[in-house]
Amino acid sequence: MSSQAVRLVVLVSGSGTNLQALLDAAADETYGARIVAVGADRPGVEGLARAERAGVPTFVERLADHPTREEWDLGLAARIAPYEPDLVVCAGFMKILGAPTLEAFPVLNTHPALLPSFPGAHGVRDALSYGVRVTGCTVMLADAGVDTGPIIAQEAVPVLDGDDESSLHERIKTVERHLLVETVGRMAREGWTVTGRTVRFGRPGG
Ligand code: GRF
């Protein structure tokens, strides 16, 4: 594996199918990025098991083990830092990150709706209850808000008659995994610039 590859720390809270897509992509060294660690906010999740099966180091930082949210934020950043990531990827990580992580590393997030519509923990359910005919997924840079960071990539997914939250989320996740892999790969290989809310691939002046 190339030592030039961009170093990723991936954060998960659940099944980790987005993580798996990144693990699979990064197995090819031409991808340009490799996963150096996977972290979670809870033990026993399938995302951690996926990392272990792939031989990737893991860590767990539970909010319940800290007296305050601020101390959890510091604890999480301290767990990430030794892996010296070039990019932190939240792949179904169900916590808002605090300043210690956001100020230390660029952080990418993925969301199962077309932001700025339907931010938050129930993006699929909220889009379905609103009655939209098209929803989708968004890959964005994370900031201190709830799904408010600059958008990097989006893809639409139609809502079908008879969809429930689960069927719609599964169809979105198929598209989301592909979009996340493509976006992280391009960022790793091409670099990126942020101007206001606009994110572009390519190095400054390139
Ligand atoms: C994804 O749709 C992510 O955007 C959302 O939760 C899902 C995580 O799926 N926040 P997985 O754990 O990667 O399978």
Defining key terms:
206 residues; 6 helices; 9 strands; globular; binds 5-O-phosphono-beta-D-ribofuranosylamine
Task: Give a concise summary.
The protein contains six helices and nine strands. With 206 residues, it is an alpha/beta fold.
Question: Would you give an account of this structure?
Answer:
With 206 residues, the protein is an alpha/beta fold. The two termini are 26 Å apart. The strands form two sheets. It has a seven-stranded mixed beta sheet with strand order 3-2-1-4-5-6-7. The chain has a two-stranded antiparallel sheet with strand order 8-9. The mean pLDDT is 96. It has helices at 17-26, 46-53, 69-80, 99-102, 123-130, 165-190; strands spanning 6-12, 33-40, 58-60, 87-90, 107-111, 134-141, 151-158, 192-195, 198-201. The protein is 33% helix and 25% strand. It has six helices and nine strands. The structure holds 5-O-phosphono-beta-D-ribofuranosylamine. Residues 12, 14-19, 47, 91-92, 110-112, 173, 176 line the site of 5-O-phosphono-beta-D-ribofuranosylamine.
Q: In percent terms, what proportion of residues is strand?
A: 15-25%
- List the total number of helices: 6
Give the low-confidence spans: none
Number of strands: 9
Straight-line distance between termini: 26 Å
Order of helices and strands: EHEHEHEHEHEEHEE
Mean pLDDT level: 96
The description of the largest β-sheet is: 7 strands, mixed
Class derived from helix and strand content: alpha/beta
Q: What is the CA-based Rg, rounded?
A: 17 Å
The strand line-up of the biggest sheet is 3-2-1-4-5-6-7
Question: Shape from CA axes?
Answer: globular
Helix content: 25-40%
Bound molecules: 5-O-phosphono-beta-D-ribofuranosylamine
